[in-house]
Design goal:
Elements (H helix, E strand, L loop, with lengths): L2 E6 L5 H10 L4 E4 L3 H4 L10 H9 L3 E3 L8 E6 L14 H11 L7 E4 L7 H14 L8 E4 L18 E5 L2 H11 L6 E3 L3 H32 L3 H8 L39 H11 L1 H15 L8 E5 L15 H10 L3 E5 L7 E2 L2 E2 L6 H7 L2 E4 L8 H7 L3 E3 L10 E2 L1
Parallel strand pairs: 1-2, 1-4, 2-3, 4-5, 5-6, 7-8, 9-10, 9-13, 13-14, 14-15
Antiparallel strand pairs: 6-7, 11-12
Length: about 425
């Protein structure tokens, strides 16, 4: 059966889009070449098991058959773009999706890129692949646009319908075709001048977050060194009604939205020659926070007459955000590996993660949270899930390091 929409890539962008489209009554097909992903397997995805069941019962279906892509009106590419070892975006999955779609592309189809990408990707990377593989011309035979993903997992206030969608089309007609589609899903559509402006808006949003978190991480180290309560500083500063937006420090920065430096346009070897120095510095600052947490742990243990070697350490919350199961980029993994290198004996607790491996070795899971906290020489709060009774934990724990500023003042050592 044909569908109105094909979502290509069923990850952290694709499934929320499919959920929103299906809820809006749009006949939606999910395509992913990986049979495991297409089967919607795994417990750490962007949707809960209950949400997935509702999605499937509402008519959403998945496939690994690329021929189904030739029978849709709109195709949205939500392929992942992970960071490579050189810290550049890997556009390989976008290329695979484009080639697969191009072989089935029919005239009058609207193709939209939601994947995070560099400015220019839609026009200079995606467009040639679609045109060469289909024999069609973008802007004449089919519509092509970019609308970067804005999904925020676990956010109870902002969801697909009330989060504006930025759209930049190759031509005005392309923009309007994409706008007509997204207007069925969201309350507000924002038209950019073109694909580059839409892509650069995503770059700005992502880098803004990382740079401001880096500032707070630097402030955390500075305030600890001079004996100032940073969390009280933030409480005071955020009362300013203008010119200040509150961010929080933490043990590191995780998630799918990695900082992007457009100086690294790896897909065509071109560089504008003007690196974003603030972004580079933010990456450096945020990247060293796990090591700073380890330093604080060792110091705390030492002050209490204990060594990191042989210490029993309990890690609380190993996901990258509170109240979700997604562990993408979570600093917990690096912190755990460094503690093991120091000879610490680790256990963990996370209500969303039933099993956890670090460097291919399992970390024992604490069954009784309070008993584990009482038995541990050091408990480290890495993610403040709502289910945690932080007041109770601060009483039970022998020594508690709160990296999120979630415990009451004076109840724990805070980052």
């Amino acid at each position: 059966m044909p569908a109105d929409l094909a979502v290509i890539g069923l990850g952290h962008l694709g499934l929320p889009l499919a959920q929103a489209a299906t809820t809006a009554g749009i006949s939606t097909l999910g395509y992913d070449p990986d049979p495991h992903t297409a089967a919607l397997s795994g417990a750490d995805g962007p949707l809960s098991a209950t949400e997935l069941r509702r999605l499937l019962s509402a008519g959403f279906r998945t496939t690994t058959d690329p021929t189904t892509l030739g029978r849709v009106r709109t195709a949205v590419i939500c392929a992942p773009t992970p960071l490579g070892e050189d810290h550049t975006l890997d556009l390989g999955h976008i290329a695979d999706a484009a080639r697969t779609l191009a072989a089935q592309l029919r005239p009058h189809t609207t193709v939209i890129l939601e994947s995070t990408a560099y400015p220019g990707t839609t026009e200079e990377f995606l467009r040639p692949l679609l045109e060469e593989g289909s024999g069609l011309t973008a802007g004449r035979d089919f519509h092509l646009a970019c609308s970067p993903g804005r999904h925020d997992p676990g956010n109870r206030t902002h969801h697909y319908a009330n989060t504006p969608k930025v759209i930049g089309g190759l031509t005005p007609a392309c923009t309007e075709a994409a706008a007509a589609f997204y207007s069925r899903l969201t309350d507000k559509v924002v038209r950019a001048r073109g694909p580059r402006e839409a892509e650069t808006a995503k770059l700005l949003e992502t880098n803004y977050r990382h740079i401001n978190i880096a500032l707070m991480n630097e402030m955390a180290v500075f305030c600890h060194d001079i004996g100032v309560d940073l969390w009280d500083v933030i409480r005071c500063a955020e009362t300013k009604p203008f010119g200040f937006q509150s961010f929080r420090p933490g043990p590191g920065v995780g998630g799918h939205a990695a900082p992007i430096d457009p100086n690294y346009l790896a897909y065509n070897g071109r560089s504008p020659g003007h690196p974003l120095r603030m972004v580079e510095l933010a990456q450096e600052v945020n990247g060293r926070m796990p090591r700073y947490v380890i330093q604080r742990c060792a110091t705390l243990l030492n002050h209490h007459g204990k060594s990191a070697r042989g210490a029993r350490v309990l890690l609380l919350g190993v996901t990258y955000k509170p109240d979700i199961a997604d562990q993408t980029g979570s600093p917990a993994r690096e912190i755990a590996s460094r503690l093991r290198e120091l000879g610490a004996h680790l256990t963990y607790h996370d209500p969303y993660v039933p099993q956890w491996n670090v460097l291919d070795r399992p970390v024992p899971r604490a069954d009784s949270l309070y008993e584990a906290a009482a038995a541990a020489d050091l408990t480290i709060l890495l993610q403040a899930h709502r289910t945690y009774d932080l007041q109770g934990l601060s009483v039970k724990a022998q020594l508690l390091l709160d990296t999120r500023g979630a415990t009451p003042a004076g109840a724990a050592h805070r980052l």
